[in-house]
Amino acid sequence: MDKLIQGVQMVSESGELIIGDVGITRNVISEIGTELDAGNAKIINGNGLFLSPGFIDVHVHLRQPGGEHKETIESGTHAAAKGGYTTICPMPNTRPVPDTIENLTLVNDLIAKNALIRVLPYASITIRQAGKERANLAELKENGAFAFTDDGVGVQEAGMMYEAMQDAAKIDMAVVAHCEDNSLIYGGALHEGTKNKELGLPGIPSIAESVHIARDILLAEAAGAHYHVCHVSTKESVRVIRDGKKAGVRVTAEVSPHHLLLSENDITKDDADWKMNPPLRGQDDLDALRAGLLDGTLDFIATDHAPHTAEEKAVGMKTAPFGITGLETAFPLLYTNFVKEGIWTMKQLIDWMTSKPAEVFNLPYGKLEVGAEADLVLIDLNKEQKIDRSTFVSQGKNTPFDGWDCFGWPVMTIYGGKVVWEDGK
Ligand SMILES: NC(=O)N[C@@H](CC(=O)O)C(=O)O
Ligand SMILES: [Zn+2]
Ligand SMILES: [Zn+2]
């Protein structure tokens, strides 16, 4: 044994909170028990701390290559490690887009050189994410693509989506969709509801998202593909996904912390740190997302970490780019506002950030068990601190949560048996 985490709180398989020790040998969890013999192992004092499998986020934007002024693989994985994540999947809306072997290899090489944790990159569905020409999905799979998506834009043509799903089904890979019909956006900057009218800004109707999801569920059924929906934001989307699951379609879905915590009513002024795609919707949408997560319609939580520079965000809601950061705030926000409030159990939150995304994408991570990869995060549930964007290690400081008082801050992240981030170091 190389490391022994002693006297730490964990969630058992049945959901109870238990106290125990966890031994790590090289990159693997080698023992779990009580009063384990340390031998020569380095002791990590887990007293008063909570231990979780390292978090998994299948939806992040690391911006490199091409967007290094917003984020890099190094700064983004640093932010992820600080947030307790050990596996993240970056979206392909970079320049170049990973749409060929050559372009995906470029991304893989950058990851090998710069990543602090496991980074499993998406490849695109279409060349340059332009929606016109299908990428060679089989070739991209062979070269390490995690799954396929054109996140950032919707695939506009049903025929293109259908053929991509047929290709993906043949190689048992998921098609992951940003659902947005461009003919229904109307130049919108926030939800078509009450706030956009108050602020005199164009709105994005809910149907821009839900229509695509309904279409794609029928396409996935016909193609026999695994179809995964990104950042679900409307009650109609939840309904059609629920119906799709009931009908036996292989549809899965994610929801973001901000869509679970905020609605358009929380926006008080024209401030682009509150601008993201999809936008914050109505209170009834927020309620439907929470219910959908609880009943399994929505499978897990993903942040959609989308860093932009302060200059880009300073120009107001109408023209600033969409997106907010998420990796450094997700757990404290969700723990404080759902678990501490008695709305979710700790097991539910941990599962939605670890084992559930792993199950959906067949990843062998996200479980605290003997033989598993030693990807772990130690969390101080009693540590109370305000979210302060100036302390973010992400280059992106764009968050609507600045100043929120939170408990449950990660203090140490272990990836493959190695400490990759420690509070204060
Ligand atoms: N979510 C966002 O608001 N922005 C994302 C794109 C995306 O996820 O669609 C980005 O790349 O900035
Ligand atoms: Zn998207
Ligand atoms: Zn995204």
UniProtKB/TrEMBL annotation:
InterPro entries: DHOase (IPR004722), DHOase/Allantoinase_Hydrolase (IPR050138), DHOase_cat (IPR024403), Dihydroorotase_CS (IPR002195), Metal-dep_hydrolase_composite (IPR011059), Metal_Hydrolase (IPR032466)
Claim: 4Fe-4S is one of the keywords in the record: no
Cofactor binding comment, as recorded: Binds 2 Zn(2+) ions per subunit.
UniProt cross-references to Pfam families, sorted A to Z: DHOase
Gene3D superfamilies xrefs: Metal-dependent hydrolases (3.20.20.140), Urease, subunit C, domain 1 (2.30.40.10)
Binding annotation for Zn(2+) 1: 59, 61, 151, 304
EC code: 3.5.2.3
GO molecular function: dihydroorotase activity
Annotated catalysed reactions: (S)-dihydroorotate + H2O = N-carbamoyl-L-aspartate + H(+)
Family under the similarity heading: Belongs to the metallo-dependent hydrolases superfamily. DHOase family. Class I DHOase subfamily.
Protein name (database record): Dihydroorotase
Organism: Sporosarcina siberiensis
Designated gene of the protein: pyrC
